[in-house]
Amino acid sequence: MPRFLFALLARVPLPLLHAFGSLFGFLALLRRKHRRILRENLGMTGMAGQVGLAAIAAGLGRGILEVVAIWLRPLAEVTALVREVRGLEHLEAARQRGKGLLLLAPHLGCWELAGIWYGARHPMTALYRPPRQPWVHAMMKAGRERGQIRTVPPDRGGVKALLAALKRNEAAFILPDQVANRGADGVWIRFFGQPAYVPVLPYRLASATGAAVLILVCERLPGGRGYRLHITPLDDLPADPAEAATRVHAAIADFVRAMPDQYLWSYRYFRRKKSQPPLPENL
């Protein structure tokens, strides 16, 4: 039944779908915990004065409902929603290097569409964390594994698959702005001036293969008119994972400042876990 209802929702025109999403986001603000997390993240990053909770809530709601259309509409319709691509020449230059492409898509705009757009054109292996609900997992996997996309979980086998894809001069797709789970998986950096424990996997892959590193951001256009894809190369990343992660997250922060209502402010980027090592003294 949920799949049937989502299939109907996926056929709603994007402007109306985004309008429904905005309403859904506003209703979510009724939850006190949700409001608290949004205010904490905005305050810690210094963005509270630049964007309001209403705009954040509307963006979060649009992001939730648009995924239904991205996963369930025919692939050609989905990729056609990208109305403009900025930086396509960087993508082509990276492919010509012959060492693979490491595509980093932050939780900004429609990151689902960023990966599907590329995978509809070229081979790509994407890292993903399976959701708890089996029916959501099945819908997500079917929606993502189209075109030339293969999805892999964040385990040893998944890491090997990403490495193999890069060595075949294919693309590996990763969301870099997450919280690392265990001590060996992450590194402490400053993100928006706050300590954040982020995964080191992207930077180890780049160092091991010499892959070209690009940031992909799929910006929502106003009024549900579609999306604008930004492709930004990050040349000559440092070999040190902490330095590389710092540079990547500085670029992400610049994008967030340019479109603050499209970031996933509900995610607890700066949370502390017992499994994380202590903060370094020189951070």
Can you characterise this structure?
This protein is of the alpha/beta class. The chain has one domain. The chain has helices spanning 2-10, 14-28, 32-45, 53-72, 75-79, 88-97, 111-119, 134-144, 156-167, 201-209, 241-258; strands spanning 82-86, 101-104, 124-127, 149-152, 171-174, 186-191, 194-199, 212-220, 227-233. The strands form 2 sheets. A 7-stranded mixed sheet has the order 1-9-8-2-5-3-4, sandwiched between helices. Strand 6 (186-191) and strand 7 (194-199) form a beta hairpin. Helix 1 packs across helix 4 (53-72), helix 2 crosses helix 4 (53-72) and helix 9 (156-167) packs parallel to helix 10 (201-209). The relative contact order is 0.17.
Radius of gyration: 18 Å
How large a portion of the residues is in β-strands, by DSSP E? Answer: 15-25%
Q: Summarize the biggest pleated sheet.
A: 7 strands, mixed
The topology string of helices and strands comes to HHHHHEHEHEHEHEEEHEEH
Uncertain parts: none
Tally the beta strands. 9
Helix content: 40-55%
Query: pLDDT average, as an integer?
Result: 93
Q: Looking across the biggest beta sheet, what order are the strands in?
A: 1-9-8-2-5-3-4
Number of domains: 1
Characteristic key phrases:
alpha/beta; 11 helices; about 280 residues; two-stranded antiparallel ribbon; 9 strands
Show the helix and strand layout.
Layout: H1 2-10, H2 14-28, H3 32-45, H4 53-72, H5 75-79, E1 82-86, H6 88-97, E2 101-104, H7 111-119, E3 124-127, H8 134-144, E4 149-152, H9 156-167, E5 171-174, E6 186-191, E7 194-199, H10 201-209, E8 212-220, E9 227-233, H11 241-258
Parallel strand pairs: 1-9, 2-5, 2-8, 3-4, 3-5
Antiparallel strand pairs: 6-7, 8-9
Helix pairs in contact: 1-4, 2-4, 9-10
